[in-house]
Amino acid sequence: MSQRTALGRHWVAEGAASAAVIAKVLSVSRQSLYRTPKVPRTPTGQRVPLRLVTPELPDDWPTMALGPELVEFDVAICIMARRHRLRQSLWPFLASMKSQQLRLPR
Prior knowledge:
Structural class: mainly alpha
Helix content: 40-55%
């Protein structure tokens, strides 16, 4: 796909056709013809090495407060993602408990 995208960018730069037509013919998105991925860099201009593993989370991650002065950005993102997955996995159980509590005895 990267070869098709590169070819499409070249054709768009030449003005061979509109980006929409080129994207449809090459089966790529229009956005891919305009955007190039940004390489993360430090303030000095060096490339930032990509992290392939999640950072180690504190033991109290389910209940700890999050904020810029409290925790690093990448740790906060991982904590929010884990909390979201935890809520999603517990939702059917909690919904059934709530429906059982709402039933009134006769």
